[in-house]
């Protein structure tokens, strides 16, 4: 079983490092008020893309809400993440979700040490399950799960594995598994088998050996937090085999790289990171490592600069604005072997990247909404999804905040998760949190006909009532 205390310690260190860094370089502390508004706080129906939103919350349930924040449906199971299945990939059946079914009871066990995953129908009945067929009868799914066009299910799992050059004892490695409807493994790929392909330096390998020298640590080597088939795209249509629709995009939260796996060979055929510095920039890196990087350039397009601890990297689907580009939530949380230099301004970013040119073609930060950079920040978890009208749905996961921005950065919908739960995050007591790993936009026609939804405009409350609206 995974070393839960090791993971909790590592998470605690990451959280504390983030807080310390903020205090040191920006003179302010990450803080939430003890009382704050929840539910939908603003909604402009004329500019927002209206849909449902699906998410699992710390209360142990999966919720489906409308634009006014009404819960229109829920399931009493948690997903890491929960994902609603596109009806076109499920025989036209609507309202089915993928979740974890059977979990351990220890801290974080419900997320990382689950024994079974499955598909629930709209009424909550289990219509597909996978668990007993897995190694040791424990799936240990985490970070991602999705249904493929061929009807199989793709999962990120944890496996005990010796990683050559890192540890002589088994560690909690990660494995991507494709499972057929009858529970047979159709394809698998193990992170530790491809260490030479990730661009990790000799210094980074030494740090990994020190971290894993005692064997098993945490719940997943390098923390692969995202895994999605590319799908049909213009790059493949133009002849670039690296972007074959069956190939899989992954990203590593701990090692700060994004990559594409060739489904046929298992090789990494495209990669961003982990080290974005080379040649003449090495001097800059030395200075940056001693302090931090200040990102002042808002010029678009420009070459991709350092990401850190990123999540939810994926190729934007055909039919959506920006189709074929890569969209990623750049957390700017402590990450990397060696640790990446972080922005002096401390804030997260959403980046849209041309994967051929490796240039940023669109970005969002707190500044784009007229806020300071730290007005938008989540050092871990989180997601970003492009919407049909060109807006982007963002889950600022650490704070349980979902919001929708226009291409210019205007916030046209915002929701604060009210479904708190108590969790042990590595200190000597449980805390109350509303964090959300991922939020999925759900078109109205993905759920059974007659499901209600409300679309009444909600004007934001003004912090300064004397300020003209």
Based on the model shown, name its key terms.
single chain, 469 residues, mainly beta, five-stranded antiparallel β-sheet, 30% strand
Share of residues in strands: 25-35%
CATH level 4 superfamily: YVTN repeat-like/Quinoprotein amine dehydrogenase
Mean pLDDT: 88
CATH fold category name: Methylamine Dehydrogenase, Chain H
The gyration radius over C-alpha positions equals 21 Å
Whole-number total of structural domains: 1
User: Span between N and C termini?
Assistant: 56 Å
The number of helical runs is 5
Shape: globular
- The residue fraction in helices comes out at 10-25%
Describe, in plain words, how this protein is organized in 3D.
The protein has one domain: YVTN repeat-like/Quinoprotein amine dehydrogenase (Methylamine Dehydrogenase, Chain H, 7 Propeller), CATH 2.130.10. Helices cover about 10% and strands about 30% of the residues. The radius of gyration is 21 Å and the shape is globular. The N terminus is likely disordered.
């Amino acid at each position: 079983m995974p070393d839960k205390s090791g993971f909790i310690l590592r998470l605690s260190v990451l959280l504390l490092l983030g807080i310390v860094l903020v205090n040191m370089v920006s003179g302010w502390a990450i803080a939430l008020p003890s009382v704050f508004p929840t539910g939908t706080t603003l909604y402009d129906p004329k500019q927002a893309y209206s849909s449902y939103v699906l998410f699992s919350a710390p209360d142990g349930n999966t919720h489906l809400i409308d634009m006014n924040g009404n819960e229109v449906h829920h399931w009493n199971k948690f997903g890491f993440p929960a994902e609603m299945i596109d009806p076109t990939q499920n025989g036209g059946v609507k309202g089915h979700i993928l979740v974890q079914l059977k979990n351990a009871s220890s801290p974080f066990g419900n997320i990382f040490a689950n024994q079974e995953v499955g598909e629930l129908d709209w009424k909550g009945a289990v219509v597909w399950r996978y668990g007993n067929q897995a190694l040791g009868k424990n799936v240990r799914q985490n970070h991602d799960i999705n249904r493929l066009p061929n009807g199989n299910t793709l999962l990120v799992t944890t496996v005990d594995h010796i990683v050559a050059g890192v540890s002589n004892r088994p560690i909690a490695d990660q494995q991507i598994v494709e499972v057929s409807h009858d529970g047979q493994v159709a394809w698998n790929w193990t992170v530790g088998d491809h260490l030479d392909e990730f661009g990790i330096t000799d210094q980074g390998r030494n740090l990994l050996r020190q971290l894993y020298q005692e064997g098993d640590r945490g719940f997943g080597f390098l923390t692969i937090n995202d895994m999605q088939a590319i799908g049909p795209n213009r790059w493949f249509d133009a002849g670039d085999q690296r972007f074959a629709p069956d190939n899989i995009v992954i990203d590593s939260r701990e090692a700060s790289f994004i990559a594409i796996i060739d489904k046929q060979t298992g090789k990494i055929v495209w990669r961003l990171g982990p080290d974005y510095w080379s040649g003449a920039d090495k001097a800059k890196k030395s200075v940056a490592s001693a302090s931090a990087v200040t990102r002042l350039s808002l010029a678009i397009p420009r070459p991709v600069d350092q990401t850190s601890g990123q999540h939810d990297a994926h190729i934007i689907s055909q039919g959506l604005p920006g189709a074929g580009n890569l969209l990623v939530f750049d957390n700017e949380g402590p990450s990397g072997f060696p640790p990446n230099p972080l922005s002096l301004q401390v804030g997260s970013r959403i980046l849209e990247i041309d994967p051929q040119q490796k240039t940023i073609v669109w970005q969002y930060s707190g500044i784009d909404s007229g806020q300071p950079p730290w007005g938008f920040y989540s050092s871990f978890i989180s997601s970003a999804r492009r919407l049909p009208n060109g807006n982007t749905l963002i889950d600022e996961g650490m704070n349980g905040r979902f919001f929708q921005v226009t291409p210019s950065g205007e916030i046209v919908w915002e929701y604060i998760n009210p479904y708190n739960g108590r969790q042990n995050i590595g200190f000597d007591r449980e805390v109350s949190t509303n964090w959300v790993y991922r939020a999925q936009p759900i078109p109205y026609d993905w759920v059974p006909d007659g499901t209600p939804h409300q679309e009444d405009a909600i004007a934001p409350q003004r912090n300064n009532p004397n300020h003209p609206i």
